[in-house]
């Protein structure tokens, strides 16, 4: 695989994450759909079962799919739940992600689909199409990546597990992903089909002051054509070094 291809895919992924809207676009709370209320219950059950923060599950699902299950062609259940039919052949675009949690099975971002399915002892096909199983598989992965952390740990301590869940091998790029996940929790997100309750997150504790300034910038660029792409902020000026 060419590095230029991987870097371009990372840029596309991060651009999609950066497009997340504000918590309440018009200042008004939304009445959740029946499906969203059902998914809330699934998130709570999986969080309890695998001892991971429910907010992380909700926020990852929001960032990946806006709580809309992605299923392979010909596998729509047509039961009224929000679903998008996807083409398993990525061609020159992003490789597909599956379910409400955006689990993957490709050479770019890893095999979270098959790994998660194995952890909950169901087939990958079930995890692709069944929302509850998809959430459970993601929660099992987060628990494994969390290295014995529990849902009582501060959310800041889970950043490394979320970065690993993303499947992005470059730590600096993976931080764009984790920043969006934690920001959605810190600010709250709500629409008819999703809801993430606000919870305090010490963002500076996670990223440090200077990195946080970059991650929170309006425009971030991602290097292309290199094996280890970096992020940069055109308008960001590093503070001058202190002289003795």
Could you explain the architecture of this structure?
The protein has 244 residues and is mainly alpha-helical. It has one domain (3-232). The protein has ten helices and eight strands. It has helices at residues 3-18, 34-50, 54-65, 112-120, 124-129, 131-145, 159-166, 171-187, 203-207, 209-215; strands at 69-72, 83-86, 97-98, 103-104, 189-191, 194-196, 221-222, 231-232. Strands 1-2 form a two-stranded parallel ribbon. A two-stranded antiparallel sheet has the order 3-4. Strands 5-6 form a two-stranded antiparallel sheet. Strand 5 (189-191) and strand 6 form a beta hairpin. Helix 1 packs parallel to helix 8 (171-187) and helix 4 packs across helix 6 (131-145). The longest helix is centred in the first third of the chain and has 17 residues, at 34-50. It is globular and about 50 Å long. The model is unreliable at 1-5 and 18-23 (pLDDT under 50).
Features:
two-stranded parallel ribbon; two-stranded antiparallel sheet; 10 helices; 9% strand; globular; disordered N terminus
List the helices and strands and how they pair.
Elements: H1 3-18, H2 34-50, H3 54-65, E1 69-72, E2 83-86, E3 97-98, E4 103-104, H4 112-120, H5 124-129, H6 131-145, H7 159-166, H8 171-187, E5 189-191, E6 194-196, H9 203-207, H10 209-215, E7 221-222, E8 231-232
Parallel strand pairs: 1-2
Antiparallel strand pairs: 3-4, 5-6, 7-8
């Amino acid at each position: 695989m060419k590095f230029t291809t991987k870097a371009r895919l990372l840029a596309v992924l991060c651009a999609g994450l950066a497009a997340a809207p504000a918590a309440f676009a018009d200042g008004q709370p939304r009445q959740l759909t029946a499906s969203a209320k059902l998914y809330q219950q699934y998130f709570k059950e999986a969080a309890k079962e695998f001892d991971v923060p429910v907010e992380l599950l909700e926020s990852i699902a929001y960032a990946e799919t806006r709580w809309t299950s992605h299923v392979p062609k010909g596998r729509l259940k047509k039961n009224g739940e929000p679903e998008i039919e996807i083409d398993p052949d990525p061609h020159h675009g992003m490789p597909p992600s599956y379910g409400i949690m955006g689990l993957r099975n490709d050479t770019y971002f890893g095999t979270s689909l098959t790994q998660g399915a194995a952890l909950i002892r169901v087939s990958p096909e079930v995890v692709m199409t069944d929302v509850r199983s998809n959430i459970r598989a993601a929660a099992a992965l987060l628990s494994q990546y969390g290295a014995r952390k529990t849902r009582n740990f501060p959310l800041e301590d889970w950043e490394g597990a979320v970065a690993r869940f993303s499947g992005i091998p470059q730590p600096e790029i993976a931080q764009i992903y984790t920043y969006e996940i934690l920001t959605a929790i810190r600010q709250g997100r709500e629409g008819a089909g999703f809801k993430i309750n606000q919870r305090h997150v010490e963002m500076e504790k996670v990223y440090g002051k200077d990195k946080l300034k970059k991650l929170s910038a309006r425009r971030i660029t991602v290097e292309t054509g290199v094996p280890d792409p970096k992020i940069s902020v055109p308008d960001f000026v590093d503070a001058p070094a202190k002289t003795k």
